[in-house]
Design a protein that fits this description.
Strands 1-2-5-8-11-14-17-20-23-26-29-32-35-38 form a 14-stranded parallel sheet, covered by helices on one side. Strands 3-6-9-12-15-18-21-24-27-30-33-36 form a 12-stranded parallel sheet, with no helix packed on it. The chain starts with a helix and ends with a strand. By secondary structure, it is mainly beta. It has 2 helices and 38 strands.
């Protein structure tokens, strides 16, 4: 592996400031070149031109860093590049218009707050990263921009695995969000998200939520995803709780199982919650498979089509309030009953 890394480095212009290097044997008094690498990310970042790249040469810990320019941090396969977060945040992205890519980093919470914190920027790509044991969120998005998380694992966050609290466009694909103390994935504040081919499980509260508590729209598309064992609350949940607030989730071809409720839409105080569910397996949740509720002037609409809803002990489909529409669902073996109040969907 060391030969491969050396070949990669030598194939580039090693003297160019556009590419810097860090290593366990480096020194922060070095110029961050291949021959004389730096020791940590912060010094290497200062030496790297905007749009450049920091390359990790061998396995070690490289320290927390705040990124204020466009840059990539690249860790070749087989190398461990650790960031131990004793306090504050592991990696912070904070400058208008920048593009940042993080590949194959391992971020470990040791009392720190967020693993990766996106305050502002144009784009953040997180690929093949491991984020474990943060005191707040694994990934926290506070500003608008585009954030993509791919082939990454986020475990043991005390609050949310991924929290989006702004009008950002966030994609999570082929990832694993596990054992969050709060929600696995939570999007609010006008966020637009896609979750695909991802496993979200063992959350303390909800698996995946879109919520809006002020005027605006938060929405998530969930596809080919497993949401399971989020035992204290709902697997997939849309909630709008203020006038002109809209929360929308579209769920397709996914498995929703062993949660408290499977799919749930809720609204109040003039908010609008919308959910569509097509081609999913909603099975063996502890309470209800698919349900709606609306209080205090809220409007909730959930459309369930071609889903398999079975072995949920209280009900398969339950319209407690709001509107629940059903079309060509396979609903059976729900101990309390298969259908309480769902209506045939005339729109289909």
């Amino acid at each position: 592996m060391a030969v491969a890394v050396l070949a990669f480095a030598l194939s580039s212009d090693a003297a160019a400031i556009s590419r810097t290097f860090v290593a366990s044997f480096g020194s922060d008094s070095n110029p961050c070149s291949l021959a004389m690498p730096c020791r940590g990310f912060t010094v290497a970042l200062a030496a790297t031109d905007p749009g450049g790249e920091i390359v990790v040469l061998d396995s070690a810990g490289y320290g927390q860093v705040t990124i204020g320019k466009s840059v990539s941090i690249t860790v070749p396969a087989g190398i461990y590049a650790g960031v131990s977060v004793m306090s504050g945040d592991g990696i912070t992205v904070n400058a208008a218009g920048i593009n940042v890519a993080l590949t194959n980093l391992t971020i470990n919470g040791q009392g720190g707050r967020d693993g990766i914190r996106f305050v502002q920027g144009a784009r953040l790509n997180v690929s093949s990263c491991q984020i474990t044991g943060m005191d707040r969120n694994g990934v926290r998005v506070e500003g608008s921009g585009t954030v993509a998380i791919a082939r990454s694992a986020i475990r043991g966050s005390a609050q949310e695995g991924v929290f989006v609290g702004a009008a950002a466009n966030v994609t999570i694909v082929r990832s694993r969000i596990q054992s969050s103390g709060g929600d696995g994935i939570a999007m609010t504040g006008g966020a637009a998200g896609t979750v695909a081919r991802t496993l979200v499980f063992d959350s303390g509260l909800f698996g995946i939520t879109a919520s809006q508590g002020a005027a605006g729209t938060s929405q998530i598309a969930v596809d080919d995803t497993a949401v399971s064992d989020n035992g204290a609350a709902t697997g997939v949940y849309a909630e709008a709780t203020a006038a002109s607030a809209v929360a929308r989730i579209d769920v397709t071809d996914s498995l929703v199982t062993r949660n408290f409720n499977g799919l749930f839409g809720f609204s109040q105080s003039g908010g609008t919650a919308m959910m569509s569910a097509t081609g999913n397996d909603v099975v063996e949740n502890r309470f209800v498979g698919v349900t709606t509720a609306a209080d205090s002037g809220g409007a909730t609409t959930l459309r369930s089509s071609q889903n398999a809803v079975f072995r949920n002990p209280v009900a398969g489909l339950l319209q407690s309030s709001g509107s629940l529409y059903t079309n060509k669902n396979y609903v059976r073996d729900n101990d309390g009953g298969d259908n309480f109040g769902a209506q045939a969907d005339s729109a289909l």
